[in-house]
Amino acid sequence: MTITLAVLDMAGTTVADDGLVERAFTDAIGAVGVSERDDRFPAMLDHVRRTMGQSKIVVFRALLPEAEARQANAAFEAAYGRLVKAGHCEPVPGAEQAIKDLRAAGVKVALTTGFARPTQDAIIAALGWQDLADIALTPADAGRGRPFPDMVLTAVLRLGVDDVREVAVVGDTPSDVVSGLRAGASVAAGVLTGAGVAADFEAVGATHVLESVRDLPSLLTRL
Q1: Per residue in 127-183, pLDDT tens?
Q2: CATH code of residue 104
Q3: Residue 121's domain spans which residues?
Q4: C-alpha R_g of the chain
């Protein structure tokens, strides 16, 4: 099966995270009165780590009542945006070239995220990636975020892919891999540049484990 669409996660996969999510979470949870000294904080941070890659509003809803979850989510997006604007945003080494190589080979590329649209746009602008991919999607664009297959299937529909088996999904969390498997992608690969480790990906049935997204073009030539 020839791959005609690659759906790539951003933070931790194509964009270096370097702890930015946890820093933004600390600010966000503080906005609703939970400091790092609060007894609830360690368990909340552990939940954030376990749900990396998922829609952030969904993560906050698991931790807080609805009104506070919305407040924390807005504070998270604002804090992450400030970090990006302050220069704390770099591509994973080799990611940009990998995307260019994929598109040169006729593979369409979708960038996906668990962040809201303003944060995704800020990251893309900071990296100068406005024209790098064919499409960029957030959970709000698709209906639900990872681990659901919605963003993958939205990319399939919007980019006119004929068969879900022509899709490769790549990310740094088990949620990325599960979303690809649920969508019917032939490749649902985990990368080791972010939150996940090989055992995490193997546990959810990843088709491949890659050191980095930069290894994806060569993998696809071997399929």
Answers
A1: 999 999 999 999 999 999 999 999 999 999 999 999 999 999 999 999 999 999 999
A2: 3.40.50.1000
A3: 5-17+91-222
A4: 17
**pLDDT digits over 26-83, tens only?**
988 888 898 899 999 999 888 888 888 788 888 899 999 999 999 999 998 898 888 8
Of the CA atoms within 13 Å of residue 214, those in its CB half-sphere come to 11
> Domain check: are 38 and 79 in the same one?
yes
Domains of the chain: total: 2
Task: Identify whether residues 10 and 46 lie together within a single domain.
Answer: no
Predicted TM-score (pTM) of this structure: 0.89
Is the domain of 13 the same as that of 28? no
pLDDT at 28: 87
